[in-house]
From TrEMBL:
Species of origin: Pinctada imbricata
PANTHER family: METHYLTRANSFERASE-LIKE PROTEIN 24, METHYLTRANSFERASE-LIKE PROTEIN 24-RELATED
InterPro entries tied to this protein: Methyltranfer_dom, METTL24, SAM-dependent_MTases_sf
Methyltransferase domain residues: 3-149
One Pfam family from the record: Methyltransf_22
Protein name stated in the entry: Methyltransferase domain-containing protein
Length: 195
């Protein structure tokens, strides 16, 4: 395993086993940036991947961050729509629609990193049902508050296996001298996508 990006929040632990390690040319989707491109920048530098970054909440437009990193002011959802959040319009697309938009239908997605602040279990069922997850080799996600066991089971049925999970230290509350987590980073590899 290798830590990619910030050692604190914003960085992610990637499976570096040769069977799952990204190999150039490679494709990485980084969904949920919050102005921290440390993961995206490190992926480009370490693995030489093309990185596609998405976040509808940031006050910057679509842009090429570098030759291999493209940012889209776009979020992921369970349907293509525009929503109003905190007085701003956010454009959302399904993972399948994003793959089609980028010409990645049926292409290997080496890493899909997703931190979408409490919307993962609303979005994941569509990602699974649509077939958009079948070519994802590594899936790194921050789960908030609860786990939908049926969705986890469906990921397992697609070949996803947890290789690492930990409490996000930036998603902790302390009460009566005990730590409670409302966010866990969970890392999967897809055993059907071995290099």
């Amino acid at each position: 395993m290798i830590r990619v990006g910030n050692i604190e929040d914003g960085g992610w632990d990637i499976c570096n086993d040769e069977r799952f390690r990204p190999r150039s040319p490679c494709i990485v989707y980084s969904i949920g940036i919050n102005y921290d491109f440390s993961f995206d920048d490190a992926i480009e530098r370490i693995f030489r991947c093309d990185v596609f970054s998405f976040d509808p909440s940031m006050d910057i437009g679509d842009q090429n961050r570098s030759n291999h990193i493209k940012f889209y002011k776009l979020g992921i959802g369970d349907k293509n729509e525009e929503v109003i959040f905190r007085g701003k319009v956010w454009k959302l697309k399904t993972l399948k629609e994003i793959q089609e938009m980028l010409g990645h239908t049926n292409k290997r997605i080496d890493i899909l990193k997703m931190d979408i602040e409490n919307n993962e279990f609303q979005t994941l069922p569509d990602m699974i049902r649509s077939g958009a997850m079948k070519n994802v080799a590594q899936f790194c996600v921050e789960f908030h508050h609860y786990y939908d066991i049926q969705t986890i089971r469906e990921l397992h049925n697609l070949g996803f296996r947890i290789y690492w999970s930990h409490q996000n230290p930036f998603a902790e509350v302390y009460k009566n001298d005990q730590s409670y987590s409302f966010g866990n980073d969970v890392h999967f590899v897809n055993i059907n996508m071995v290099n």
